[in-house]
Amino acid sequence: MYRPLADELRPRSLDELVGQRHILGPNGMLRRIVQSGQIPNMIFYGPPGTGKTTVARMIAEKTHRSLRKLNATTASLADIKEIIAELDTLMAPGGVLLYLDEIQYFNKKQQQSLLEFIESGRITLIASTTENPYFCVFNAVLSRSTVFEFKAVSAQELRPAVERAVRFLSERDGVEIRAEDEVLMHIAYSAGGDVRKAINAVELMYAAAGREKDGTVIFRPEDAQTVSQRSAMRYDRDGDAHFDLLSALMKSIRGSDPDAAVHYLARLLEAGDLLSPCRRLLCSACEDVGLAYPQAIPIVKACVDCALQLGLPEARLPLADAVILLATAPKSNSGYLAMDRALADVRAGRTGDFPRELQNVHADGAGFEREQGYLYPHDYPDHWVKQQYLPDALRGVRYYEFGPNKTEQIAKQYWDRVKNRS
Predict the structure, then answer these.
(1) Residues 56, 12, 150, 53: is their CA dihedral positive or negative?
(2) Per-residue DSSP letters for 169-229?
(3) Cα–Cα distance measured from residue 335 to residue 333, given in angstroms and rounded to the nearest whole number
(4) 13-32: per-residue pLDDT in tens?
(5) pTM
């Protein structure tokens, strides 16, 4: 019976596990918990192939409790009730250790059905999820659990796992496998931090590799590129990777790093996502560059329109121009801050009546104490005349402060001169 290589090479101890040094290192919190044998309810959160299931199995062996496994993609409420029925019987005299994979697929009622039993300790829950548990796990379950984040494994940490897989195949089948450093590192880098994916790539290359006359198996660079096409992309348009990429793009632009900004744009486009970066670039033009270089807004809008009309792959060209323009442009968030200050007052109820001078001309008829008295700025020098515009309740409030950039400082000097002459 066929058994996947990744399963054959599954670590048997924490020391064999690749990555996760932050929680499973010599003094890591999760390692100390596992070694103590006193296992609390836990939620393992992280991308696929980072060791969540493997660690759960190790914990089950350590505790010697009755282990039950459910996958939330296929399990039902009846499956939970069946496990609950085993409690306090000879099948589970010391309680149950329940490993619930992909808990994000359980609805609120299914998650709630476990509450009474995980709170009493009759069921110890170890759940895993690839999505942010603070968004997908019911709060009452979260409050009774400890969340541990599993991170994507670096290429440097993956390299030994790739070498181990090659060595295992060579010893198992009694053949010599030739794999250059270039090939091994390509597999490690292209796996996107997923140990399982890296080992699967080794297994696939081994199955497809030709044999030399002497029986030697050669891993060729072109085969490594073929089996790893786009495999480094860890992307889900509804998941954390999506929002992390968009956040990294925006923050790189805001931080004026064109190289990082282009890198994150490339990752988004390689994943086939055109609309999300377009929207973020329009936002960044207004939020981060803003009044320091107002021309950036129509330029970026033109680049986005061009990209949407071209479609991928050509859309990368105008979007690259837009990203580099924004990253290298002077920055100002003065408009963003002014709007937030104004919104804060409006939401707090600080509004007040319109100044009499600003009301519509319908208020100029008979029965009013005085006419509107609006002064038309274009009738005055420099097209400006002093009069009140904010409501009385907000008279003198300052929302906008000129930013310390050349464009806004020129505007400030102009208006200081005009307004101070009166």
Answers:
(1) negative
(2) HHHHHT--EEE-HHHHHHHHHHTTT-HHHHHHHHHHHHHHPPBPTT--EEE-HHHHHHHTT
(3) 6
(4) 888 888 888 998 888 899 88
(5) 0.61
Q: In 3D, which of 69, 51, 71, 58 has the Cα closest to residue 197?
A: 51
CA distance 34 to 197: 26
Cis ω on the peptide bond leading into residue 298 (within 30° of 0)? no
Please state whether 64 falls in left (phi above 0), alpha (psi between -120 and 50) or beta. Answer: left
Query: What is the chain's length?
Result: 422
> Nearest 5 degrees, angle CA 285-CA 287-CA 291?
75
3-state secondary structure 109-136: HHHHCCHHHHHHCCEEEEEEECCCHHHH
Q: Which one-letter amino acid corresponds to residue 245?
A: L
Phi-psi category of 174—alpha, beta or left, where left has phi over 0 and alpha has psi -120 to 50? left
The neighbouring-strand residues paired with 16 are none
The tokens for 158 are 């993956």
353, 391 Cβ separation under 8 angstroms: yes
Contacts of 227 (CB under 8 A, 6+ apart): 187, 201, 204, 205, 208
pLDDT for 240: 64
What are 161's strand-pairing partners?
A: none
| Amino acid identity for residue 95 in this structure | G
Contacts of 32 (CB under 8 A, 6+ apart): none
Whole-angstrom distance, CA of residue 17 vs CA of residue 201: 19
pLDDT band at 258 (very low <50, low <70, confident <90, very high): very high
The DSSP call for residue 100 is: E
363-369 long-range contacts (CB < 8 A, ≥24 apart) are: none
Could you give the maximum distance between any two Cα atoms of the chain, in Å? 108
